[in-house]
Amino acid sequence: TKCSEDFTAYADVCFREFGNRVASWTTIDEINIGVIGSYDSALFPPGRCSDPFGVTKCTTGDSSIEPYIAAKNALMAHASVFSLYREKYQHKQKGIVGINIYSYWSYPLTNATVDLEATQRCKDFLYGWILGPLVFGDYPQVMKKNVGSRLPPFTKVQSELIKGSLDFIGINHYFSVYVNDRPLDTGVRDYKADMSVNSRGSRTDPPAGQGPPTDAPSDPKGLQLALEYLKETYGNLPIYVQENGMGSADDSLDDTGRIGYLSSYMGSTLKAMRNGANVRGYFAWAFMDLFELLSGYQSRYGLYRVNFTDERRPREARLSARWYSGFLKHNGTTALASRAQVNQALNLVS
C-alpha cells in the first residue's frame, strides 16, 4: 500500500542518517491501542468512529472494521521496514528492529471456566493481535472466530513477509485488570465487543467503559506475569519495558509514592528475569514532566518537576530522581527501595 511505501521510505532516511548512532529501532509505538484510539473510540487523530462506539459523535468512520484494517496496514508497514533494514543496513550497522505494544495484565474475576477463557481471550486480543502475525504469521484463532470476515486475512506472501519480522518486543506497561466473560453481542460489534469481556481495575470496581480502566491500582506482580507470559507464548524474544511509571496530579517534590511504584515494578522485572524472561532493558517513564497524550499537563510522570507557569520552564529534581540516580550509580546492585529506605531518603533531602 501507499502507506507502507511511504513509511518504508521515511525509515530508509532514518536508517541512512542516524544508523551509525542508533542501534535499536522501534517502528511503531503502542500499535494495538493506537489503532483503537484512532479508528474505534476516536480518542486519537484522525478521530474516526461510528455510533455507538466513539467517545464523541463521529462524522466518518466504521468502528467495526477500520481498526482491523489499520492494524494490518501497520503490521505490513512494520514488516517492510524490518525487511529493508535486514537487506540494506543490518550487516554494516548491526542494529535491531522491533515494535512496541501497549500492555496490561489480566486476572480472571472468578475461577469460573467462562472467566478463565475470557482472560485468555483478553490476552489474545491485546498481545496476540500483533504478536501472533509477527511470530507465527497469523492472528489468534479466537480473533478469527469472533471477528470473522471483518478481520482482513494475510495472503501467503504477506504471512511469509511478516512472520519473524522482529528482533525484540517493546511493551508499555502500567497496571492490571480483572476480567470476566461478557456474552458476544449479536449486533454490530467493535474491538471491545469482539473481545467479549468486561474489565475493571479491582475485584470490587464496576466494569470499565470503552477500554481498560485508567485509574487501576499499582500491581507490580502483573508486570512479572506479563513478561513471563510473553516468554512462554512467543518464544522468549528479547523484551524491553519501554515505559513504566506513575502519573500524579500532585506537583510535590517529595514523591515517595513514585519511588515505591518504580522500585516495586523494577523488582517484579527482576523476578521475571530470574524466571527466564529475556528482558534486555527497563525504562522509567518519564525523565521529566511533559505533555501526555490524553491528560496534557495535568498528569505528571516526571522524575524532574517542570514549572509550566514559568516561560523558562525550570526543572527541579524530585526525590524519585535522586533515588533513581543513586540506584543507577550503583549499577542496580543496591537493594530496591523498602519503605524504610524511602523514608531515609526523604530525611536526607529535607
TrEMBL record:
Gene Ontology biological process: carbohydrate metabolic process
GO molecular function: beta-glucosidase activity
Highest taxon, organism lineage: Eukaryota
Disordered: region residues: 196-221
SUPFAM superfamilies in alphabetical order: (Trans)glycosidases (SSF51445)
InterPro entries per UniProt: GH, Glyco_hydro_1
Pfam families tied to this protein: Glyco_hydro_1 (PF00232)
Family assignment from sequence similarity: Belongs to the glycosyl hydrolase 1 family.
The protein, known as: Uncharacterized protein
UniProt source species: Aegilops tauschii subsp. strangulata
